[in-house]
Write a structure and sequence with these properties.
Layout: H1 2-12, H2 16-40, H3 42-48, H4 50-75, H5 81-109, H6 112-123
């Protein structure tokens, strides 16, 4: 959430360098986060709810596309605050949906090994600096 806010604030302030830096961290965090979910949660969830899992996978694909498109705009200094705010709103809605469905299900149904692997992957300190 901190990185989300930094990107929003930088966009609102028209701080191009700050937005580029925050956006790079956001891209890295989200890419790693979605990959961890797709590796550790979705395969098991898909066995019990393939429709919902496919919907979450499709949302991930859409978010990746939007993240990439906005990233190009950020690099070219073409992205305005409303676009960033709209993306962040979409991202928060997705996160809320995942929390309600995937993470609640994972907490009750994933093996301890998979839960630990997911937790370790999501907590990695280098996730914000990958590129």
């Amino acid at each position: 959430e901190k990185t989300f806010q930094e990107a929003e604030w930088a966009a609102q302030a028209r701080d191009r360098d700050g937005l580029r830096d925050a956006w790079t961290r956001l891209e890295n965090l989200l890419s790693a986060h979605m990959a961890a979910e797709e590796t550790h949660v979705f395969p098991s969830l898909e066995k019990v709810d393939p429709t919902e899992t496919m919907a979450l996978r499709n949302e991930h694909a859409t978010l990746r596309d939007q993240l990439c498109e906005l990233g190009v705009g950020v690099d070219l200094h073409l992205v305005a605050s409303p676009l960033v705010a709209q993306f962040m709103s979409t991202l928060r809605q997705h996160a809320k949906r995942e929390d309600t469905l995937a993470y609640r299900w994972a907490a009750e149904n994933l093996s301890p090994e998979l839960r630990n692997a997911l937790a370790l992957e999501l907590a990695r300190p280098d996730r914000a600096t990958r590129r």
